[in-house]
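#help-structures
NK: newbie question, is this the right format to request a structure? protein is Very-long-chain (3R)-3-hydroxyacyl-CoA dehydratase
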Amino acid sequence: MENQVLTPHVYWAQRHRELYLRVELSDVQNPAISITENVLHFKAQGHGAKGDNVYEFHLEFLDLVKPEPVYKLTQRQVNITVQKKVSQWWERLTKQEKRPLFLAPDFDRWLDESDAEMELRAKEEERLNKLRLESQGSPEKSFYDTFHTMADMMYFCQMLSAVETINAAIGVTQSPVMPSLIQLLGRNFILFIIFGTVEEMQNKAVVFFVFYIWSTVEIFRYPFYMLSCIDMNWKVLTWLRYTVWIPAYPLGCLAEAVSVIQSIPVFNETGRFSFTLPYPVKIKVRFSFFLQIYLIILFLGLYVNIRHLYKQRRRHFGQKKKKIH
């Protein structure tokens, strides 16, 4: 005779963007929680209504959800948060109209739709007020609004910078491809992935320093190239072009590294870009693992670029050959 499947008591509540599940099991360790084909699977050893046993349940959601549940263990229960694919109010939790016997509303967190809308509106107003105060406050606070002020322009400039790499690849310019490609990929990774997809990173002061250092380098580099196209050599600009990089490139690399390090806890918490390897491996690969590898590549790329720029500087400002009398 097969063992009877034990189901724990589960309480639920919702907001427009999230679902909250509270599983009444105590002393749980390492539960197996996953979402496959819009079905939440739960299995864990813990102490419930039937004593210390293995408990499990499955819930097919009414509408689409994101397949990365986040859970938190306490001594008395397991709290699970599931993100909805579309921010909207659900009339019920499950696809089946009849509510499962083990499922009940969580009245400690329960809100009607109108109350939830007021809560959502209040949070949005609080966020906007915070941004407004930061932008109108002291000069130090203005650092935190850099992304929202400059993001569109930086997106445009960084996409346009791909032309420089393409020109080097097809021979329009004599510049080597590798340093240009390293800079293009590195900057776009920081801008589009670290800053662009993680809202928590967009209000950090490091964004100001990254954008400022990038722009400082290009202020002298591109005018130098433009004058070179018409065979003009302005000595002051040439000196700046081959000197400003000495402090700017290491500082820029340091600022980019800080932004990556600050983003690692955020990616771990949200599970963004993480994935689980298919059966039979079933190992979750966190995106933060790739970020740690990227930090090593970042400093290797800095070495390649500095080596290239040092050779260029020596070619322009190296010691002149002594005249033979």
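mod (FA): yep, format's fine, and the tokens are attached above. The CA atoms of residues 118 and 291 lie 38 Å apart.
NK: thank you!
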